[in-house]
Amino acid sequence: MGNMNELKEREDKLQGMGTSMLRKEDARFIRGQGSYVDDIKMPGMLFGALVRSPYAHARIKKIDKTKALACPGVVAVLTAEDLKPVNLHWMPTVGGDVQAVLADQKVHFQLQEVAMVLASDRYAAADGAALVEVDYEELPVIVDPKKAMLPDAPVLREDIVDKKDLTHGPRTHPNHIFTWEAGNKEAADAAFNSADVVVREEILNPRVHPSPLETCGCVASFSKATGNLTVYVSTQVPHLFRTVLAMLSSIPESKIRVVGGDIGGGFGNKVPIYPGYVVATVASIVTGLPIKWVESRIENISTSSFARDYHGVGELAADKNGVIKGLRFSALADHGAFNSHVSATKFPAGLFSICTGSYAIPNAYCRVDAVFTNKAPGGVAYRCSLRVTEAIYLIERMIDVLAQKLGMDKAEIRRRNFVKKDQFPFTTPFGWTLDSGDYHTALDKVLEAVDYEGLRKEQAAKRADPNCPTLMGIGLSTFTEIVGAGPTKVCDILGIGLFDSCEIRVHPTGGVIARLGTMTQGQGHATTYSQIIATELGLPASDIVVEEGDTDKSPYGAGTWGSRSTPVSGAATAQAARKIKDKAKKIAAHLLEVSEGDLEWEIDRFKVKGNPSQFKTMKELCLVSHTGNLPAGMEQGLNAVSYYDPPNLTYPFGAYLCVVDIDKYTGETKVRRFYALDDCGTRINPMIIEGQIHGGLTEAYAVAMGQQVPFDESGNHLGNSLMDYFIPTAVETPVWETDHTVTPCPHHPIGAKGVAESPHVGGIPCFTNAVVDAFAHLGVTHMDMPHNAYRVWQTCNATGVNKR
Amino acid sequence: MNVTLDKTFPMPGSASVAWKLLQDIESVAGCMPGAKITERLDANNYKGTVSVKFGPASMSFRGEIELKQVDESKRVLRLIGKGTDSTGSSGASMDLTAQIEAVDENSSNLVGHSEVSVNGKAAAFGGRMMSSVSDQVLKQFAANFAARVQTLNAQASPAGSGTGSEGNLQQPGAASVSISATAAVADPSAAPTHLSAFGLLWGVIKDWLKSLMGSKK
Predict the structure, then answer these.
(1) B32: confidence class by pLDDT, cuts 50, 70, 90
(2) CA-to-CA distance for B114 and B93, rounded, in angstroms?
(3) CB-CB: which of A133, A716, A719 is closest to B120?
(4) B84: which chain A residues are within 8 Å (Cβ-Cβ)?
(5) What CATH number is given for A37-141+215-263+270-303 in this structure?
(6) What is the extent of the structural domain holding B176?
(7) What contacts A236, CB < 8 A, 6 or more positions away?
(8) What is the pTM of this model?
């Protein structure tokens, strides 16, 4: 027993995988000692403020800088004319289009960047920006994407009117960006033609914004003496950022350093390169002075990358038993004024074709048509891989619509269509190979935990009681996510494969520094990665330092988005650690004078099989590796770098259940219960996982119940401040109950799948399904988000449940 | 953000007096709370400013007004105003058709139809209040306008000649000078330099309360 205690003590000391180690980064955050881009102050630094258009579509007749230049503190006013000599008034986008850095002759969306005022302090810059006089001639606008391709629609993009193709296939209208299709249309059509039952629903994912706590911003600093450019920036993708700067500026990439620092939340908002960054960089190159540009909240919500805006149509065909035979999903995508939509080169509609979800659907076809409108450009993945929320929302809504049509229980219809445990790896008709899963077990565990039968009985009783003041709804969501982009054979951005990397250096006394190509924004990377290394190397996690975000220090990687850090960099970390462990084993064998085959690993040491008193701890080996007492020909040190190219994406899944009570007279919707079971494969830090799930569910609640970026008919923003835009606080946020199963990923070195986005992707349809379920007995099959009290009241009123 | 406003305000003066005043763009602007004509470019084009203060927010629009149409026989006038606020963050335009309808010797109606469009920050923040704010602005405008009509009517009546007004119509330029001069003296409560924030806020709240009461069944 003494031996068991000793083993446990040694294991506990490591705080490796599976332990809820407290987050290393929190010590500085809770003291207010984080360092964000706006904390950076440099000698001689100038501040940039952007002049933005009040019109959604207008021709610029004249820009008069005179008054602004006379404003005390103002140093310069830059317009498109000033960027023309360096050919940076337009920039190429990841989506195959170009985007105006500063408006060139025309503005295409409200609050588009027109000029940047540089001044000695932020206030002078703002005052100067207010004095730049711009004369506009208003032009007709397109706000509704359904009107973008009408024959008489105004042409928005005169600059590319002759381009027949924006790298994603032929354009059929000046406002058309691309049409993308996947699956087999003939097979799907055939399944519909012979089906017992067919359902169709128009389902909108409204335009929303990730709105992280910290807005976007940068400090660009170019040294005329050395020719070095340093950019401190709130970015999720420091290495790609550096590559893009090198492409745009023609400064050698080796002379550019991008530093991420602490990031106050990203959620996709901090993947793109925004015009403000480019202007600040150009201004710094021209002046030789550091330039700071940081967005206001209104600028953030209005201009830097919205999410969603998918106007979907879902269709399912099934037999009379509810077994789905065919799927046809389409979406009209509103991409705004420029196609600066963040997508891997081969996936203009992201991973939308994951839309068969957790179900074995034999015939499927999907299509996305993207159009220009007079709205802010972008299109980022708000806490998901691109377009996965849209896809999963459609399938999880449509399966409910089908259940209602058949009068079938919403849990039962899911069971009948799930991919079965023994069918994995399962290849969908769109070609994705779901790695592993056990959907039936997950759903059954949830139903039992909440007493699903009991809830349905309570609901039936309430429906039967005309005096009941509330409507009760039960929502289910049994989703499958697709994360961890991705295999370089299919995934690249700007031609760069989406592998990731980790470099580990072990110091003589057993301290470790690990550097990665990812970029934490609150996910707790410093903790999670060190726990992986702790378990792999048998060195305590507390002595392992993780560094990310400084391109001068860390190896190349594609950054953090799409829940890719654990699936890709977590794997690179394990691989690098294993290279070190292999070398350490050779040293141990040399010291113990046995062959490697005679050694076995035990927590923090190699010991000789059958002779447990003969061992070498990892800590001892660290020191020896820095001496001359090494196997013949071996170099000193215990260092390794690993680049991991994932063989497949990973497919975390979950089963969620939500119970809502809706006041029949006010439409107010209260979440009584939300039970979330997640399976993310191997769990590294259960506390961090739970925190990520809480955050993701809260953002799902935000989207489902209140968030939207609406516009009026002239393209005016009607909700770009926190006065209007819904950010749930502790007051509104429901209580979350979490649970899990563990189905390891078969191709990942430690079996982990990634987790942070599952609750967002799976949570949103769960809320909508609960709200719609409350009205299901009244014939309601769908209600578009957000389900705020006013909108839900409209359904109460339309169905007459509010009549006393 | 577009709002269409159709309003009729009774005027305490004859149609001819009210029509004369209506054609004097500078005077009309003087009746609009916070508005001012700063420059007359030619017979039909003016430059002007409008300042609006609403609680902590203030906006100063500068823009141009174009007199599009003057129909003597029907006493109809149409003008278009367009402007941007001084910080460049908002835009506004108004297409106004105003008509004077005779009622009797000493009273008439000012009938207005306007389409107002607001862009930018003013729409984002002011949009939801726009109908009620416009209502209040027009009420203040109508009260100022009516006060001037009454003064002019009183001046016109003792002279007692209906023909005099017709004579004036043939010399609109001369008439406008005298009107604006007298109006400025005669109307001590002449338009404030910007919208009265308190009065406006109270008016908006009062109307909102009224609409709540009215809609209750």
Answers:
(1) confident
(2) 10
(3) A716
(4) 54, 134, 136
(5) 3.90.1170.50
(6) 2-215
(7) A263, A266, A268, A270, A271, A519, A521, A559, A560, A561
(8) 0.92
Does residue B190 register a pLDDT over 50? no
How far apart, in whole angstroms, are the C-alpha atoms of residue A322 and residue A410? Answer: 10
pLDDT, tens digit (0-9, with 9 covering 90-100), for B99-130:
999 999 889 999 999 888 888 888 887 777 77
Specify the pLDDT at position A341: 86
The 3-class secondary structure across A706-758, one letter per residue, is CCCCCECCCCCECCCCCCCCCCCCCCCCCCCEEEECCCCCCCCCCCECCCCCH
Q: Locate CATH 3.30.365.10 in chain A.
A: 2-34+500-644, 307-485+649-799
Residue A292 CB partners (closer than 8 Å, separation 6+): A37, A38, A40, A45, A46, A47, A48, A217, A218, A219, A280
Give B86's pLDDT tier (boundaries 50, 70, 90): confident
Question: Residue B124 has what pLDDT?
Answer: 81
Q: List C-alpha distances in Å: A311 to A207, A251, A382, A465.
A: 10, 41, 17, 37
Fold of A307-485+649-799: Aldehyde Oxidoreductase; domain 4 (3.30.365)
Confidence of residue B189 (pLDDT cuts 50, 70, 90): very low
Query: Which of B47, B86, B119 is best to mutate for the A interface (most A CBs within 10 A)?
Result: B119
* Residues of chain A scoring pLDDT < 50: 1
Give me the number of domains chain B comprises. Answer: 1
Q: Rounded distance, CA B36 to CA B48, Å?
A: 5
A299, amino acid identity: E
Q: How far apart are CA A327 and CA A183, in angstroms?
A: 10
Nearest to residue A615, comparing CAs of A579, A583, A589?
A: A589
Q: How high is the ipTM of this complex?
A: 0.73
Domain with CATH 3.90.1170.50 in chain A: 37-141+215-263+270-303
How much of chain B exceeds pLDDT 70, in percent? 71
CATH number of A2-34+500-644: 3.30.365.10
B124: nearest CB among A129, A136, A720: A720
B88, B91, B123 ranked by CB distance to A130: nearest: B88
Can you tell me the mean pLDDT for B69-93? 90
CA dist A476 and A454 (Å) reads: 15
Q: Alpha-carbon distance B8 to A114, whole Å?
A: 42
Q: What is the pLDDT of residue A460?
A: 98
Domain at B7, CATH number: 3.30.530.20
Q: How confident is the model at residue B204 (pLDDT cuts 50, 70, 90)?
A: low
- Residue A200: half-sphere exposure toward Cβ, Cα within 13 Å: 4
Cβ within 8 Å, pair B1-A138: no
Is there a contact between A714 and B120 if contact means CB atoms under 8 Å apart?
no
pLDDT band (50, 70, 90) for residue B61: confident
Which residue is listed with tokens 């010590």? Answer: A27
For residue A426, give the H/E element and its range: strand A426-427
Is the CB of residue A110 less than 8 Å from the CB of residue A286? no
pLDDT at B57 over 80: no
Interface test with A, best of B87, B94, B118 (most A CBs within 10 A): B87
